[in-house]
């Protein structure tokens, strides 16, 4: 970890049996110790690799209900850290992701 390490948004679950939630906590601690912006969402339960929390990818009974919002939260975090994507390709990609995201969760 050094000055080239980018800001990080991390979403994890407390019941992940592949990667311990403690790894996420330690990683965020190291980021903060090095002055690197980070946001951690540690959900109470859910499997490893819950992806976008779509029902076609993950069994909803296995997921904390708030995991459904992690993609939206991560985009908002990106805008908080880097500023709103108001023009160019990033703005277009952000709008497309928002539209796709809302279609997925409805």
Q: Can you identify the CATH superfamily?
A: Alpha/Beta hydrolase fold, catalytic domain
Shape: flat
Give Rg in angstroms.
Answer: 15 Å
Low-confidence sequence ranges: none
Query: Quaternary arrangement of the chains shown?
Result: single chain
Identify the CATH architecture: 3-Layer(aba) Sandwich
In terms of DSSP E residues, the strand content is 5-15%
CATH topology: Rossmann fold
- Residue-averaged pLDDT, rounded? 80
> Order of SSEs, N→C?
EHEHH
> Can you summarize the main beta sheet?
2 strands, parallel
Q: Into how many domains do the coordinates divide?
A: 1
Query: What is the helix content?
Result: 40-55%
Strand order of the largest sheet: 1-2
Which structural class do you get from the secondary structure elements?
alpha+beta
Q: Give the CATH level 1 class.
A: Alpha Beta
Tally of helical runs: 3
How many β-strands, per DSSP?
Answer: 2
Instruction: Calculate the terminal CA-CA distance, rounded to whole Å.
Output: 39 Å
Q: Could you characterize the architecture of this molecule?
A:
The N and C termini lie far apart (39 Å). This protein has helices at residues 21-33, 70-82, 88-105, and strands at residues 8-13, 38-43. The radius of gyration is 15 Å and the shape is flat. α1 links the parallel β1 and β2. The chain has 3 helices and 2 strands, in the order βαβαα. The chain has a single domain (8-105), classed as 3-Layer(aba) Sandwich (Rossmann fold), CATH 3.40.50. It has 106 residues and is of the alpha+beta class. The protein has a two-stranded parallel ribbon with strand order 1-2.
């Amino acid at each position: 970890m050094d000055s080239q390490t980018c800001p990080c948004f991390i979403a994890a679950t407390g019941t992940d049996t592949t990667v311990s939630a403690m790894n996420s906590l330690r990683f965020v601690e190291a980021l903060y110790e090095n002055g690197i912006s980070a946001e951690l969402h540690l959900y109470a339960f859910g499997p490893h690799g819950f992806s976008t929390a779509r029902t076609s990818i993950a069994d909803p009974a296995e997921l904390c209900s708030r995991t459904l919002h992690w993609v939206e939260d991560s985009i908002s975090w990106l805008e908080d850290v880097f500023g709103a994507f108001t023009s160019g390709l990033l703005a277009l990609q952000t709008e497309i992701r928002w539209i796709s995201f809302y279609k997925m969760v409805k």
